[in-house]
Design brief:
Elements: H1 2-10, H2 15-35, H3 51-72
Amino acid sequence: MMAKLVNFFGDKKYTRTRWRLLIVILVSIVIADFLVARPHDYNFWDTIPGWGALLGFIGCGMIILVSKFIGKKVGLSKKENYYD
C-alpha cells in the first residue's frame, strides 16, 4: 500500500492525475466554505467565501518561497555531495 502511494507521488507519469486531484480538492474546499454558516463574523473578510482556503494557500506558498530563498540565496543549505 505504501509503495503504491510513494509511486503515485514520485512518478512522472502521474503528474496530470496529481494536478487534477489537487484542483478537485481545492475546488471542494472553496465549495464547502460556501455551505458553512458564519454567525459571528468579526471582520469583513471573514464573510468572503473561500477566504480561509485562499489565505492558507497563499501562506503555504509564501513559506515555500521564503524557505527556498533562505536555503539558496542566504547559503543555509549545502550541496548534495557536501559530506563526500
